Amino acid sequence: MVRDLVQRMGLLGTPDRLQVPPRLAAREELERFHSPRYLDLLQRAELGEFSDEHLAAGLGTLDCPVFEAVYRYPAWATGATLTAAEALIEGRAGVAFNPSGGYHHAMPSRAAGFCYINDVVLGVLRLTDAGWRVLVLDVDAHHSDGVQLAFYDRRDVMVISLHETGRALFPGTGFEDEIGEGEGRGFTVNVPLPPGTTDRQYLRALREIVWPLVDVFDADVFVVELGMDTLAGDPLTHMRLTNNIAAEVVTELLARDRPILALGGGGYNVPNTVRGWTLCWSIFCGANDGLSDYGVGVGGVLLQNTDWIGGLRDPVSVDEPTQMAYLDREVDHVIAKVQALVFPLHGL
pTM score, two decimals? Predict the structure, then answer.
């Protein structure tokens, strides 16, 4: 749906806005993060085999069911992320976006949270192979736990995850004091936000935590997971953002003039997610010149739904003062705690 919409809007298919065929990730590439035994289980499940060992590896559950292409589908998604990383490394692109990527919960030997193979980790490893220092910014509503695990003791990769607090949402991790270990201490940053968080609080977290760390780390490349499950109305989360936040994130990253590998991630209100990713792509393309104005009937006409008949951008939310005061206090506490734990490690 994202591809169809951006094509209809003229944002794909020109020499500077290419659709690039992905490739199937090779088994040896997947083994850089995943155990051979786990990959064997995925391949056996695809052939119709199933055992208690599959269940122990998180397969066959409500959030990670076994389906016809349970190995090939995530391997193709990972191949797309690797293709995107290679396009950046080779200088063939300045921005590469794989909306089908962002499986940040997959662990070395276990599937979790709709994620079977961690394309994020494997894409980052491809970038570090090229000698690049990588800044991972994950704005999905869920904590980037698998990515955190992979790079928890490294200082050439900074992982910043803004998410709904683990006290209220899967996977129950990602608290302020999870800041890395050993050489990587201070290079993992978690910003857990309360249920009901709105644009107002989120923007403060970005401006007071994220952008100072992005600038001091001075990465060679940005990897951004643009999960749209933070949007108001998502059936699986409790945040109340508009897609103007995603637009802000993309705009700020572009302003820093680094290669960008963008990934999709979560988003379970499908029309809102499609509109949000299309908005991000339009900004990446430098085409945000009226396509996202409120007067353009993209929501109702091209998405063929009646939820929102304006343009790509969500309308600005109206905040309730009492609730805002509570959320402001909660986010004040989070910001102060993260700054106290992490900023001194970077001279901030």
Answer: 0.94
